[in-house]
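User: Before I run my own analysis I want an independent prediction to cross-check against. Here's the chain; please return only the structure tokens and, at the end, one sentence I can use as a sanity check.
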Amino acid sequence: MHNISIFGTSSDAGKSTLTFVIAKLLQDMGITTAPFKAQNVSNNSQVADDGCEIGISTYFQASVLGVPTSYHLNPVLLKSGTKNSASVIVKGEELGEKDVNSYYKDLDQLKPIVKEAFEHLSSQYDCVVAEGAGGCVELNLLEKDLSNTFIADTFDTKIILVADIEKGGVFASVYGTIALMQQKFKDNLIGVIINKFRGDRALFDDGITIIEERFGIPVLAVLPYLPLNLGFEDRASLQNYSQKKEASLKVGIINLPHISNFTDFEPLIIDDALSVDFITANIDAYDYIIIPGSKRVVEDLMWLKKCGLFEALQRYEKKIIGICGGYEIMFEKIIDKHGVESDEKETLGLGFIKGSVYFEDKKVLKKTTFDLHGMTLHGYEIHFANSHTYPLYYDSQPYFGTFVHGVFDNDAFRDYIFGEKYKGYNFQNRRKEILSTFIEEMRTNLDMQKVLKSISS
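Assistant: Structure tokens:
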């Protein structure tokens, strides 16, 4: 059976979502599947079952499918670094920072690692669904492309092309992408999915005819625009969240320039009792303020000072919650003698918590639990900084902070944090309902028989 590559005509076309949807629909047809992304560029990551760090979108895809997680699902991950560099994470472990030119020069050293990871999954599952990255025919990057052409060429994958109609110019993007594809990839193309269509889909019947008859490409689906509000991969996907509710409690999340792990807040976004905004000003309009995780904590702390939010937070008299990098910002000082994240050896924080946090040269990566007022809370840790005084969390009104991501997934924690006025819900049950509804809508529109026939031949 052939494996599948999910190519996009552009970034944010919906590749991450269609990867888990197609894999799940194949799984429901009795085919064992696993997601894969050779190289991810994201500040949003998760601790896998093997204790390694992988991109959050791939972790989310695996969680939908119920498959074990390891670095094999995402062997290369890049995170924001200083200036023109990136933090390079290979096989789930951070190797330090590299500038872009050095990274590309060393790319051939990564190919065997990517190949080994894919081969491992292919030996374990009937079909690996490999998510591509960005646009699949960026001609100046084809020799540097691990996620699209390297996988599709090396493993002779069948290809599904995803085009975002919401961006406009969908015919040009599909036609141009096909025209620029290598012949081998054209031969392996199963068809195209037109994604994020709004309105009456019958209005696109002529569009299907044009693509199939004039371009010679089967249309596998015209999928409606449905906000999922789960599995956010990056800032672009974060902008797509949707709230249609009038809630009594308003939560403002500081939209830091290097915000990370914003999947922490999915339980809040889908919560009918809360109105959630990502903000850069006017914090007094909110009942709760959250300072989220950050990949560049000191830089984001300096940004808070520059834009006036630092002083505004110090004046704010209601509840402030800090998660990981946000927690670090709440201390009196941030000490980075090793230059892990910044050239600044010592930086003054908000001062809500007495003492300092210290950046170590080894990253903490682990799934964790801790007890808080009789609650056993589950989450995960990804951080370089540590506190000798409050190594896991701090809790003293009106402040709460923790190094642990995923705490809002715990129903009891949300009840505790948001107090008597808050009407809680079961997050895991709601998550299952949302995913089930979303996948069923995709199932009714996707021609999976055509996909199955193509990968079985």
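Sanity check: The chain has 16 helices and 24 strands.
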